[in-house]
Amino acid sequence: MRSPRPTWTRCEKNPILTRADWPYPVHSVFNPGATILPDGTTLLLCRAEDFSGRSHLCAARSADGVSGWTIDPAPTLARDPERAEELWGLEDPRITFLPELDRYAVTYTAFGKSGPGVALALTRDFREFERCGLVMQPDDKDAALLPRRVRGAWAMLHRPMTDASADVWISYSPDLRNWGGHEIVLRARRGGWWDANKIGLSPPLIETPAGWLMLYHGVRRTASGSIYRVGAALLDLEAPERCIRRGASWIFGPEEPYEMSGDVAQVVFPCGVTQPDADTLNVYYGAADTSIGLARTSLSAMLEWLQHDDSTDF
Ligand code: BMA
Question: Distance from the CA of 2 to the CA of which of 116, 154, 195, 250 falls in 20 to 30 A?
């Protein structure tokens, strides 16, 4: 018998963060990276769009990950005017803690005249950052590092865009600066599928005994615009370029008014996930490119469902 699709429970305080919460003027806040700091504080690195239309990143901290947010009084990571690749802003950060370096890696979209590329910054405290610049040239986005080396190399999931397709790839590096060993991990499906033609990594991967759990977004193009939804796949632990399970159905999609309308209608776009306990996933997402939502789901239910909803007939 098939397992039911894993249940997602939206936080009753949703949207948990909006521009009205910001200590300085911004047009919208969305697509946050997330992590739990050593003292238990939940940190969100939010994409904030200013009134020029360009984005920067701003940290929000909360003891319970739901309410009582303390937001930095000014942009935490802003455009560096010396870096041409950031001319049009910084977008969609993902955070991975790297125990080997005792630093957080922030991968974000650097948007410049050549298009969106993947940039990397390292930090210990989300106050000072070591910027490493572009690690994947345009057109590429939706990137996150794995927290540890695989077969001796750092690994990064990302989504290069070509005329032919927009699929999830993995690349490897000895030093976080030089990247190679590029392999495709997950292809966008075709035709009538919910994730036809364009997919991308959502939050960073989650390591489980069964494999790396990947939440990814799929884009359905319709006559009235695109619908951004979330699905799941499982990647081999020691060879993450190998997908071992892929759910057929999407598991989370826009339903609530704050997800159905906003700057970009019908979008849920998670960039951050935390694990407050062994089985809970707190997924932080952009709602309609306008505000920030939180939804909870169960890791064990997700893995169980992936054992049964696996689909290779695409
Ligand atoms: C994607 C990215 C996201 C955005 C989404 C929906 O391509 O640009 O930043 O949330 O589209 O507009």
Answer: 195
